Structure formats: structure tokens, C-alpha cells
Queue: 2 jobs
Job 1
Amino acid sequence: MLVNGKWSAEWHPVQATDKQGGFVRQTSRFRDRISSDGSTEFAAEPDRYHLYVALICPWASRTLITRKLKGLESLISVSVVEPLLSEQGWRFGDYPGADRDSVNGAEYLHELYTRADADFTGRATVPVLWDKKTGTIVNNESADIVRMLNSGFGGLADNRINLYPECLREEIDALNAQIYPRLNNGVYRAGFATTQISYQQACNEVFEQMDELETRLQDGRTFLLGERITEADIRLFVTLIRFDAAYFGLFKCNLRRVRDYPLLNRYLKSMLSVSGVRETVNIDHIKQGYYSIKALNPNGIVPAGPDLSDYGF
Ligand SMILES: N[C@@H](CCC(=O)N[C@@H](CS)C(=O)NCC(=O)O)C(=O)O
């Protein structure tokens, strides 16, 4: 991580822990907004913003999917980091499916953080939404980035899809409040737990949440809130698509796989068939990336399975 703008060798993939040995995620530091009505200093403009992502990362993938669904590909450029975390964190390079940094010519993602704030202290995480005009980070919190890609670009975006419509906000917020702690972050809490009790608690919540979602889908609905795709679906999808490939094994979330849930499995396939979604998924990056976390897998051996051919991978 960075400490007062300097890369610290004290880097450790397990972030902070609480008193019980549970995993605690750091809060994001850059929280500015892009707007199309002049209400913020970051105006919605074509070719001004750049998104830095890792394809292993569920949070970054939320933003990539939203960029696709909102038709913002030609307006917002993207760089993908390599899937393996280096001694200095995320790196740009020639790994298949990764990019060099065409905007800033950085070798490591942390260089962008110190360019934005010379004294930055914290982890250099993806996603990063970068402003090419002022040379700074607009925002590094995926939940904010999803919202601003959904509505901050006004008429420049394809507004046939609204991922956070007024009439569904309450329900979306309520679902997010369940799915984020118990499932999206729940798998990490299970995987990075340092005591049996914190692992057990997290693992139970993961499967309680999966069971609840399976029940929710019993009425035949296509998406979580009915027949229209919303932000809640994107947030669920990014975890489900990584589940059998990484969380089941590496994070010890191994009571059931997604494919053992008939309705969640059907839902996952429906999400993959939404135009633009599949292209954001790279199973090789996901497996290589997660299984390179040394604290959890010291020898870095990547398992051969699972067979995901029936999903088209
Ligand atoms: N709150 C952030 C979390 C992002 C995050 O934790 N990203 C991870 C990858 S999945 C990361 O970049 N980790 C690098 C590190 O912790 O050093 C968001 O949702 O945008």
C-alpha cells in the first residue's frame, strides 16, 4: 500500500482485521462526481474520462458492465491491469487480455494515486475513474461510478436502460444492503477470515443470502426486480460469475456451488446473455488473479477446474 505517497513494502493482501479476526475493507478516498448539468467540476464530455480496471475484480467489473449497458464505450476509454498482483500491487503489461497504460504511461496503478495526491495513504485499488483533462482521479468507489455512468452522462449515454430508476430505488437499496455485506463482501470475509468463528459467520451469511435469492427467483422473474435489469443485478452477477471458479475453492465458500441452485444458475445464464455482459468476463484473469493471492495460496497453483463449458467459457 501507499504511505504518505511512498510505496510501502509492508504490503499485504489481507486488508485490516477487526477484533474477532474478521476482514475489513478500506473506504474509498476519491468521491467526486461527473455531471451533465454543470453541478460538479467534472463535466460529462466525450473522450475525457478513462477507466482503470482489473478483470479479476468484481467491483471494477460492475463499472465495466455499466459502461457497456449505457453505450459509453466510445466515450470512456479503458485500461485493464494484469491479473497477478505484483510486489507493487496492480501492474500494466503484456499478459493476454491486459493493457499498457495508454493515458499516463504508468507501470503500476499506485502511480496514478500519487499523481492524484502526492501524499496518498491507502491501498491502490481498482476501479479508478480518471480525468484526462485535469489529470486526477475523479472517483475510486465502484458504487459511485456505476451511478454516475448510469445518469451522469445525460444525452451522451444510451438511456434506454436505467439501472437505478426512481420507482425502484427503495427496493434496489434494500437488496444492495443485503447482498453487499452478506454475499459480495461476504465471500471475502469468509476467504480472508483469520479465525474459525469469523470464517464460519461469513460463510453462513453467504449461503443464507444465496438461499434467499433462490427463493426470490421462484416466481419465474428474469431479473431480481422483475423484467428489467437494474443495478442490483449487476452487483449480484459479478459475484455469481466468480463463485464456482474462485470463491468455492479459494475462499472456502464450499457448501454449494451456483450450479447447485437451479434458479440462480438459470439467472446467471440469463445475465450472461444480456448484450455486453459476457465480454466483461475473463475466467482466466479471475482464476489466475485469485489463486495468486499468496496469503491464501502460497504456491500459487491454479486449479484445473471447474468445467464452465456449459456457460460458454
Ligand atoms: N470500495 C472499492 C473496493 C475496490 C477493491 O477492493 N478492489 C480490489 C480488487 S477486487 C483491489 O484493487 N485491491 C488491491 C489492494 O487491496 O491492494 C470499490 O468498490 O470500488
Job 2
Amino acid sequence: MTRTDGDTWDLATSVGATATSVAASRALASREPDALFDDPYAGLLVEAVGLPHFVKVARGEIDFEGDPLFGARQAIDQISVRTRYFDDFFARAAQDGIRQAVILASGLDTRAYRLPWPAGTVVYEIDQPAVIEFKTRVLADAGATPAAERRTVGIDLRDDWATALRDAGFDQDRPTAWIAEGLLIYLPPEAQDRLLDTVTALSAPGSRIATEHMDPKALTGDWAKAMTERAQRHGSDIDLTKLFYSGERRTATEHLSAAGWQTTVLTSNEAYAAHGLEPVRDELVAMIGGSGYLTAVRV
Ligand SMILES: C[S@@+](CC[C@H](N)C(=O)[O-])C[C@H]1O[C@@H](n2cnc3c(N)ncnc32)[C@H](O)[C@@H]1O
């Protein structure tokens, strides 16, 4: 199945399964004694989706050893560095007085439930309707309660999500902390530009956004193909070549800089070093060596 305008999914299919995949890694990493973050809900969400491979990953039952990228230690470090980047981003925003957060493409992200939000914070989550409904129901059934006022918006991010967000109570006159974690490569280039322009239009001064910084080499399609082949050897049946929109696109860093945001990129290697971790040495990582994380602030 290849991507089409207006395609939809749940957490077991198409792009939705990628959300289950990262949640499985979070479940695995959360069980570490010295974990860099704790996601107490990731495991139960992955179990509820029920995709056998990711259930095994979440339970730590897959033997990844022997692969320098997919070994359990490497998988744990990778998701830990990534998760902490976005957790720390929200913590700093809260310290700086921001009380409105938007999680774009929230998938099985449980930050609304697990982060220590200051009183009065409103957290919006946007994703496909089936994804939003599933997570909300499973966590409610498990007795989990959000740690902030959580408002959900089930809509496709290629559509007019700004109106839906405003209808849910979003106040564009207040500074906002936005994250788009693991989203942009799943959008066609023009939809990515439109999304960033919409974020810009909705961002009062002092707003900020965190997302991935993609090395343009990651967009050629070669990396998605090589990554898919390796992941499938370990039992994954996700085919990134069918889910990514590869080819020319402006990076979020370039786009937001041009729109007047102040941008700061932390490469993956720098992010690993900040936690005292050894960066992964692997040909797949070398292919996209300049990738990392981007924070942009609207002045
Ligand atoms: C790799 S997952 C990341 C989920 C979450 N941010 C995380 O890091 O755990 C990609 C997410 O993007 C969402 N997504 C991708 N394209 C989307 C679109 N056009 N509209 C709404 N959601 C989208 C998917 O539903 C999925 O939840």
C-alpha cells in the first residue's frame, strides 16, 4: 500500500503502526533501572494494539543482539535520547511560563499523562481520529488520568486542523509550546510547509517548537530502503519506503528560519553526548549523520 491524499489508518496499520513501534521502544526503555524517562503507559498501549512483533519488543522478548543499530542497548539509548529531548523541551517551556502545549501527531505519546505540568496547563493532542480515540479509551479503561487539561483533536494534519484546534479552545494569543515528533517525513513536502506556516500563524511571540532536524540525505529514499531491510530482518513488517514521502523538501530548520524563528539544531551525536552516551556507529546512521533535533523560538 502506498500513500495517497486523504489516506487514513489506525494504530495497527500504515503510518499508525509507526506510532506503535516507537511506543514499544519506550516500553522497553522504561524498564531500565537507570532509565532516562518513565512511560508507565507505553506497554499497556502496545499490548492493546496487539501487533505481535511490537508486543514482543515492548516485553523485551526480541533478541536484537548482533546488530549494531538494533541491539537492545542501542534501541534503548536511541529512544531515550529522543524522548528526553522532547520531555526537556516541555519542561523548559513550563519553567518559562508557557501553559499551552500542542502535540502534533501525538500517536501513543503519553506526555499529557506522565509529565509534571504546572497547574493551569492545557495540552492539545492532534492525530488521526482512530488514533486519538484508541489511546483515550485504553488509558481511561486503565484508570489513567491526564496530569494537565488534555484536549484532543482527531483530524488529518493535511486538512484544516487550525480551525479544529481553535474550536477545541486553543488560544493563539497565548505563547505555545509545540512538538512534532516523528511526523514531518510522513507528510508530503507541501503539507509540511503548510503545517509549519500554520504553526507560525498560530504562534504568539514567545512560542516555540521542537521537531526533528533531517539531514537532506535522509530524504533520498536510500536510507528508508536500507533501514526497512534491516528492521525487517528483526521481524518488523513496517515498510518505510511506502510510508515516507521522500525527495526534495525544505528542511523544517530552513523553513522556520526563513519565517523569522530562531532555530537551534542539536545533532544526534551531541544529544547522545549530553547524556554521556556513546553515539551509534553504523552505516545507516552515517547515511544521515547531520540529523538531530530542532528547537525554534518565535521572537
Ligand atoms: C512515528 S509516529 C510518532 C507518534 C508520536 N509523535 C511519537 O513520537 O510517539 C507518527 C505519527 O504521526 C501521525 N501522523 C502522520 N501523518 C499524519 C497526518 N497526516 N495527520 C494526522 N496524524 C498524522 C500518525 O498517526 C502517527 O501517530
